[in-house]
Write a structure and sequence with these properties.
Blueprint: E1 6-7, E2 16-17, H1 25-29, H2 33-40, H3 68-77, H4 83-107, E3 116-119, H5 145-154, H6 157-168, H7 179-212, E4 215-220, E5 223-228, E6 237-239, E7 250-251, E8 261-265, H8 267-270, E9 275-279, H9 282-285, E10 299-302, H10 321-348, H11 354-364, H12 372-390, E11 398-399, E12 411-416, E13 423-433, E14 438-439, H13 444-462, H14 481-499, E15 504-507, E16 531-534, H15 538-549, E17 553-557, E18 561-565, E19 571-580, E20 588-595, E21 601-607, H16 609-612, H17 622-631, E22 635-644, H18 646-660, H19 666-677, E23 682-693, H20 697-706, E24 710-714, H21 719-728, E25 737-740, H22 747-758, E26 763-768, H23 769-778, H24 780-787, E27 792-796, H25 800-814, E28 817-822, H26 828-833, E29 836-840, H27 847-851, E30 854-856, H28 861-901, H29 912-919, H30 924-928, H31 938-943, H32 946-949, H33 959-983, H34 991-1010, H35 1016-1032, H36 1053-1056, H37 1059-1086, H38 1090-1095
Parallel strand pairs: 1-10, 12-24, 12-28, 24-27, 25-26, 26-27, 28-29, 29-30
Antiparallel strand pairs: 2-7, 3-10, 4-5, 4-6, 8-9, 11-30, 13-14, 13-23, 15-16, 17-18, 18-19, 19-20, 20-21, 21-22, 22-23
Helix pairs in contact: 5-7, 6-7, 7-12, 7-29, 10-11, 10-28, 12-28, 13-14, 14-15, 18-19, 22-23, 23-24, 28-33, 28-34, 33-34, 33-37, 34-37
Catalytic activity: ATP + H2O + phospholipidSide 1 = ADP + phosphate + phospholipidSide 2
Cofactor: Mg(2+)
Enzyme class: translocase
Length: about 1100
């Protein structure tokens, strides 16, 4: 026994745990798609200049040098802002971020990646320290929670502004009120935010703990021990049971099968749930027992980590577009605040310490920027999330990110995975076509009858001899000619389907069998009920399962033989002479078998119609029927055969062996030998298999299309399958033309193909990941411009990195909101890159669900999630945000009028608790009840998805609607203050009580004016707030003086209970609100919004 046996990494299942680092996956995968994708960007294309073929994308062409093609797209997208405009519009944030990144890079240098040596079963021998094998989706830890939350809050201009204002109250010369007037609201906002973040962080911690606590069997010198997933170390030997998830990167060392084979699923890598055959390392598979793994002193030498298909860019922190828009509006309010303060100081004549007066005016008018805006919106978002999770029509929905529910109401692009998202990845055999007759789901019993009769007649003719695999044709001479012909053709077609595949039947071990026996074939149950099929394609499993249903069953298979069972119970044995697996280039697979009972040699082949149409004998029905099945959404396969004599096969085998041993052009020579057999083959049948769609996928996609949302399908599956699913799911409507972007590898080919694509109008695009990569390298802007005009786009053979890249490009080139939805680990990068990520809990695990902002159980739930909850969340947040700003503007207007009357003195109108109470108990409940408002019922929103289209234009919250609310605030504030001064001139000492009472009543009426659908809680909030104000008059009389308490009188209960006070306050309130009611009524009559047309 040698001291060391080097084991090279195999991308498979079972034993030694390698590094949990995500970058290690490409060590297992070899020089695959990701590595090639990266390296090709470093190559210079042979076509240096294409000026003679200008690519016209608009009215004008462009002719640039080679270097210009790399800088042109980004130069066309945006025009950078300069100077003061750039600094005010987030330039200061950019500078701060750049400085922080620079400091982080200085303090935390990137670790150099090196090749690794991993000893089997000896983690202590590792030369370097590896990270823990744990999943962590948390944003903070114990030390970074408070600093992190504070940073996330004060990076917004609104909160930073109020922090500065609150700190200014510690300066005696600037103090204009009580400290709690400023610090209490700020502290409440921070407390609510920290509580919400703490709850979200605790939920993330619980989800991570659940995943990291999954138990696995670890093999040690002393036997098996149970370890948590997070405790697995590099070098451990892990026993992975059937249907158990792989906890880390692993090398496949042993299996219970004698041949060392095992079927695995790579859904966490590429999203495909198909079973793939892998073979264990031969030297460890041959060991007598598991314990011998510790005696061979073997190690795995792994190359340094390469580009990983699981890696993604992005953070867990999400900021919605509504938050950014409100942040811009608060900056506009700040400019208005400064301008108003400067005007006041100017009208004063800059007398005395004018700069101090300027700052005092800034403090007096600080309510123009309402601090309660953030806390109201955050609480509203929490309510929206709760409504989503409690909706009985979309059970199982989970809101994992509570900061962006309104993003669901402004989506323009939805990027979806295929396998497990649109489809169930469960294939069902639907149709068999023989040229003259077609069999569907309702006539399969006829095929079963033909098969049973064929083999029963064959058995009776054979007598005591072993049954022949082909029924003698002359034995059916008594039957009608048509029946004999059809029966024979059905028999040959079914036999070809059950033999031409790469499916292996698998049998479960008997219950109760335990121990460490390596090979347990004797303990297996070979009954039909215990049989399952495993293959690299679900299509093949569906075909073999169908042959079993009609009477011809595959009962066993190994590398050299397979056995079939007839309806009568006889077992037919076939020797596998050659197997030609399916490839994406050939689009077909073949097999040569010998019937052991008759020694007949037959070459069977099946494949796509485009590949098989030139191989089979002439016919006049194949092309037409393939088109008919494709229009029904079926995946078609053409099946053919060719009988070979012993001499023909021996000649082929010698040429085939010689070609495989060739040192030059081996692939081409092997293909040429195989093609020598693929001539004039007998066409047997055409099969149609349906990839079952998720429930209600078609109406959901139609709803999204009517809502103005463009759906892009990004999948790792092959082009034919992706195109078929796109058509069957109605992602591409039946009447829609489809342009299949041909494979391009150079700039010149991409140039020509883009020009050809540009000449197409209103057609869906289907493109492969490789071609997409070339187009983005040279013509990024031009390709995105064309693709965004398509009603639907299908990208096949996409790696996870490419999926995330497409999302990012859409955001950059269109500026629209994107949403990504998927169900597998390979969709995480796409989900994280999108503005809004939705995960589906399905067969591919929970990685996508855990990493997404929202989690659903079925694709059809997307419709209600967007049309109802997304739409309501956006419209409610827009109304709530603008109303809160109106509440601050109206009181600031009254303060400006009051200061003007008092010769522009910087004296506050309302003191202490009145200011705090105005924004909380007096108006908070009615204003916050706007989160329950809705313009149309959920059923109406689902029935008319066109209502959603209006939201993408952002009209519910824009500078236009903002200016309207500003004008309303100025009008109402002026009416309230001047009305109080004019009507109560003789009782001027009571102006504070008068104006404040009218202000509270106006706010309550304005809420009623804004509401479109009343809820009983809204009525309760209105009367509760009014009751709180009336009852508080008993102990707040000291705050109703003019200016400071020492300036004015206290409230006079005798005065406020008079009829004169009541009707005059009512008159002021009516004048401030009635014109707005009239304008609203006239607008709904003359130019009603779309929802009003439906409700009427």
């Amino acid at each position: 026994m040698v001291d060391q046996i080097p084991l090279y990494r195999v991308r498979s299942v079972a034993a030694a745990a390698a590094n949990r680092k995500r970058a290690a996956y490409y060590s297992a995968a070899g020089p695959g798609s990701g590595a090639d994708w990266h390296s090709r960007y470093q190559l210079e294309d042979e076509s240096a200049h294409l000026d003679e073929m200008p690519l016209m994308m608009s009215e004008e062409g462009f002719e640039n040098e080679e270097s210009d093609y790399h800088t042109l797209p980004r130069a066309r997208i945006t025009q950078r802002k300069r100077g003061l405009e750039w600094f005010v519009c987030d330039g200061w944030k950019f500078l701060c971020t750049s400085c922080c990144d620079w400091l982080i890079n200085i303090c935390q240098r990137k670790k150099e990646l090196k090749a690794r040596t991993v000893w089997l079963g000896c983690p202590e021998k590792c030369e370097e320290k590896h990270p823990k094998n744990s999943i962590k989706n948390q944003k903070y830890n114990v030390f970074t929670f408070i600093p992190g939350v504070l940073y996330e809050q004060f990076k917004f201009f609104l909160n930073l502004y109020f922090l500065i204002i609150s700190c200014s109250q510690f300066v005696p010369a600037l103090k204009i009120g009580y400290l709690y007037t400023y610090w209490a609201p700020l502290g409440f906002v921070l407390a609510v935010t920290m509580m919400r973040e703490a709850i979200d962080e605790f939920r993330r911690f619980q989800r991570d703990k659940e995943v990291n606590s999954q138990l696995y069997s670890k093999l040690t010198v002393r036997g098996k021990v149970q370890v948590k997933s997070s405790d697995i170390q590099v070098g451990d030997l892990i026993i992975v049971e059937k249907n158990q998830r792989i906890p880390s990167d692993m090398v496949f060392l042993r299996t219970s099968e004698k041949a060392g084979s095992c079927f695995i699923r790579t859904d966490q890598l590429d999203g495909e749930t198909d079973w793939k055959l892998k073979v264990a390392v031969s030297c460890t598979q041959r060991l007598p027992a598991l314990g011998d793994l510790f005696s061979i002193s073997a190690y795995v030498y792994a190359q340094k980590p390469q580009l990983d298909i699981h890696s993604f860019e992005g953070t867990f922190t999400r900021v919605g577009l509504l938050d950014l828009e409100l942040n811009r509006l608060t900056k506009a309010l700040f400019l208005a605040l400064v301008a108003l303060s400067v005007v006041m100081v100017t009208l004063q004549g800059f007398v005395g310490p004018w700069y101090r007066n300027l700052f005092r005016f800034l403090l007096l008018f600080s309510y123009i920027i309402p601090i309660s805006l953030r806390v109201n919106l955050d609480m509203g978002k929490a309510v929206y999330g709760w409504m989503m999770m409690k909706d009985e029509n979309i059970p199982g929905t989970v809101v994992r990110t509570s900061t962006i529910p309104e993003e669901l109401g402004r989506l323009v692009y939805l990027l979806t995975d295929k396998t497990g998202t649109l489809t169930q990845n469960e294939m069902v055999f639907k149709r068999l076509h023989l040229g003259t007759v077609s069999y569907g789901a309702d006539t399969m019993d006829e095929i079963q009858s033909h098969i049973r009769d064929s083999y029963s007649q064959m058995h009776s003719q054979a007598g005591g001899n072993s049954a022949s695999s082909t029924p003698p044709r002359k034995a059916q001479s008594s039957a009608p000619k048509v029946r004999k012909s059809v029966s024979s053709r059905i028999h040959e077609a079914v036999k070809a389907i059950v033999l031409c595949h790469n499916v292996t039947p698998v049998y479960e071990s008997r219950a109760g069998v335990s121990g460490e026996t390596e090979f347990a074939e004797a303990d297996q149950d070979f009954s039909d009920e215990n049989r399952t099929y495993q293959a690299s394609s679900p299509d093949e499993v569906a075909l073999v399962q169908w042959t079993e249903s009609v009477g011809l069953t595959l009962v066993s298979r190994d590398l050299t033989s397979m056995q079939l069972k007839t309806p009568g119970g006889q077992v037919l044995s076939f020797c596998i002479l050659q197997l030609f697996p399916f490839t994406s280039e050939s689009k077909r697979m073949g097999i040569i078998v010998r019937d052991e009972s008759t020694a007949e040699i037959t070459f069977y082949m099946k494949g796509a119609d485009v590949a098989m149409s030139t191989i089979v004998q002439y016919n006049d029905w194949l092309e037409e029927e393939c088109g008919n099945m494709a229009r029904e959404g079926l995946r078609t396969l053409v099946v053919a055969k060719k009988s070979l004599t012993e001499e023909q096969y021996q000649d082929f085998e010698s040429r085939y062996t010689q070609a495989k041993l060739s040192m030059h052009d081996r692939t081409l020579k092997v293909a040429a030998v195989i093609e020598s057999l693929e001539r004039e083959m007998e066409l047997l049948c055409l099969t149609g298999v349906e990839d079952q769609l998720q429930a209600d996928v078609r109406p959901t996609l139609e709803m999204l299309r009517n809502a103005g949302i463009k759906v892009w399908m990004l999948t790792g599956d092959k082009l034919e399958t992706a195109t078929c699913v796109a058509q069957s799911s109605r992602l591409v409507p039946r009447t829609q033309d489809t342009h299949i972007f041909r494979r391009v590898t150079s700039r010149g080919e991409a140039h020509l193909e883009l020009n050809a694509f540009r000449r197409k109008h209103d057609c869906a695009l289907v493109i492969s990941g490789e071609s997409l990569e070339v187009c983005l390298k040279y013509y990024e802007h031009e390709f995105m411009e064309l693709a965004c005009q398509c009603p639907a786009v299908v990208c096949c053979r996409c790696s996870p990195t490419q999926k995330a890249c497409i999302v990012t490009l859409l955001q950059q080139h269109t500026g629209r909101r994107t949403c990504a939805i998927g169900d597998g680990g390979n969709d995480v990068s796409m989900i994280q890159a999108a503005d809004c990520g939705i995960g589906i809990e399905g067969k591919e695990g929970r990685q996508a669900s855990l990493a997404a902002d929202f989690s659903v159980t079925q694709f059809r739930h997307i419709g209600r999630l967007l049309m109802v909850h997304g739409r309501n969340s956006y419209k409610r947040s827009a109304a709530l945000g603008q109303f809160v700003m109106h509440r601050g503007l109206i009181i600031s207007t009254m303060q400006a009028v009051f200061s003007s009357v008092f010769y522009f003195a910087s004296v506050p109108l309302y003191q202490g608790f009145l200011m705090v109470g105005y924004a909380t108990i007096y108006t908070m409940f009615p204003v916050f009840s706007l989160v329950l408002d809705q313009d149309v019922k959920p059923e109406m929103a689902m029935l008319y998805p066109e209502l959603y289209k209006d939201l993408t234009k952002g009209r519910s919250l824009s500078f236009k609607t903002f200016l309207i609310w500003v004008l309303i605030s100025i009008y109402q504030g002026g009416i309230l203050m001047y009305g109080a001064l004019v009507l109560f001139e003789s009782e001027f000492v009571h102006v504070v009580a008068i104006s404040f009472t009218a202000l509270v009543l106006t706010e309550l009426l304005m809420v009623a004016l804004t509401i479109r659908t009343w809820h009983w809680l809204m009525v309760v909030a209105e009367f509760l707030s009014l009751g709180c104000y009336v009852s508080s008059l008993a102990f707040l009389n000291e705050y109703f003086g003019i200016g400071r308490v020492s300036f004015g009188a206290f409230i006079d209960f005798t005065f406020i209970t008079t009829v004169t006070f009541l009707w005059k306050v009512s008159a002021i309130t009516v004048v401030s609100c009635l014109p707005l009611y009239v304008l609203k009524y006239l607008r709904r009559k003359l130019s009603p919004p779309s929802y009003c047309k439906l409700t009427s």
